[in-house]
Amino acid sequence: MKNDKNLNDINTNSFLNTILPSNWIPFIILCRLDRPIGIWLTLLPCFSALIICSDGIPNISNIVIFSVGAILMRSMGCTFNDICDYEFDKKVSRTCYRPLAIGSITLKKAITFLLIQLILCSSLLIFINHNSKLLSIILVPIVLIYPLCKRFTYWPQIILGICFNWGILIAWSEVTNSITLNTFLLWFGAIFWQVGYDSIYAYVDSEYDKTIGLKSTAILFSENGKFFISLFYLFALIFWFLVGYNLKLHFSYYIGMTVILLHFMWQIINFQPKNQKRNFYLFLQNIWVGILLVSCSLTGTMFIK
């Protein structure tokens, strides 16, 4: 199957490319700092948890710690993913120009870079409480397991959803020193959301993945993607509505949830299993779901005071 340069996911116009030394750029691309969408999709659900369990505006130190943590953990996961998959990446349009796939970084340098990221992540542990430390340590092997899942299961998106949204658990633990039913409801909702939008993302690569023997929900669902993605989005909304109901959040929270519902409907209407460019675009639009989730969490908690 011929690779299409138009589907290449590397941002050659990134601001970082213009201000950093040229020998840094392959490492920036390796850990996806040139494409911050993944950082935002990791961070925004975490911000929502921080806001809700803080009854409004979280303190600055927590915002900084969890922002840095999201950047480092997402970057580390991307680096490890490319180390595991660089032979596969050479055969897929979206990934064939990544640094390890084209040889602009050696495997040895990538592994060294991964270890540096792990050390930086570990340094954040000194700033959080004991329970949050334990949760952070538990996350590391889950992050490292994810790249291998696509070799053995059609559901790697679930593992990714668990990883991406683990910050909800850590944030809640850090603020309240406990994890409650509502913590899990917010987390489960975020996981279902992730499985939905990452399934749309997986359709971009599905034809290539079939050829090289990798698995994903997109391959499993095939032409039935609209139905299953709709189902995941519906469950996400149900869990998020339950959070608002249990915590008696302000009515504005439900207005935000309604807008998210409309956004999900727009995604489903426009989703086409065979349209790679459109599906990539729809995936990117999920940043607005994250922004809406944070916004209605903020108004829902602050206006009840």
Automatic annotation (TrEMBL):
<dbReference type="InterPro" id="IPR000537">
    <property type="entry name" value="UbiA_prenyltransferase"/>
</dbReference>
<keyword id="KW-0831">Ubiquinone biosynthesis</keyword>
<dbReference type="InterPro" id="IPR044878">
    <property type="entry name" value="UbiA_sf"/>
</dbReference>
<keyword id="KW-0808">Transferase</keyword>
<comment type="similarity">
    <text>Belongs to the UbiA prenyltransferase family.</text>
</comment>
<dbReference type="GO" id="GO:0005886">
    <property type="term" value="C:plasma membrane"/>
</dbReference>
<keyword id="KW-1133">Transmembrane helix</keyword>
<feature type="transmembrane region" description="Helical">
    <location>
        <begin position="134"/>
        <end position="149"/>
    </location>
</feature>
<dbReference type="InterPro" id="IPR030470">
    <property type="entry name" value="UbiA_prenylTrfase_CS"/>
</dbReference>
<dbReference type="InterPro" id="IPR039653">
    <property type="entry name" value="Prenyltransferase"/>
</dbReference>
<dbReference type="InterPro" id="IPR006370">
    <property type="entry name" value="HB_polyprenyltransferase-like"/>
</dbReference>
<dbReference type="Pfam" id="PF01040">
    <property type="entry name" value="UbiA"/>
</dbReference>
<keyword id="KW-1003">Cell membrane</keyword>
<feature type="transmembrane region" description="Helical">
    <location>
        <begin position="225"/>
        <end position="245"/>
    </location>
</feature>
<keyword id="KW-0460">Magnesium</keyword>
<keyword id="KW-0472">Membrane</keyword>
<feature type="transmembrane region" description="Helical">
    <location>
        <begin position="281"/>
        <end position="304"/>
    </location>
</feature>
<keyword id="KW-0997">Cell inner membrane</keyword>
<feature type="transmembrane region" description="Helical">
    <location>
        <begin position="184"/>
        <end position="204"/>
    </location>
</feature>
<protein>
    <recommendedName>
        <fullName>4-hydroxybenzoate octaprenyltransferase</fullName>
        <ecNumber>2.5.1.39</ecNumber>
    </recommendedName>
</protein>
<dbReference type="GO" id="GO:0006744">
    <property type="term" value="P:ubiquinone biosynthetic process"/>
</dbReference>
<comment type="pathway">
    <text>Cofactor biosynthesis; ubiquinone biosynthesis.</text>
</comment>
<feature type="transmembrane region" description="Helical">
    <location>
        <begin position="154"/>
        <end position="172"/>
    </location>
</feature>
<keyword id="KW-0812">Transmembrane</keyword>
<feature type="transmembrane region" description="Helical">
    <location>
        <begin position="251"/>
        <end position="269"/>
    </location>
</feature>
<dbReference type="GO" id="GO:0008412">
    <property type="term" value="F:4-hydroxybenzoate polyprenyltransferase activity"/>
</dbReference>
<comment type="function">
    <text>Catalyzes the prenylation of para-hydroxybenzoate (PHB) with an all-trans polyprenyl group. Mediates the second step in the final reaction sequence of ubiquinone-8 (UQ-8) biosynthesis, which is the condensation of the polyisoprenoid side chain with PHB, generating the first membrane-bound Q intermediate 3-octaprenyl-4-hydroxybenzoate.</text>
</comment>
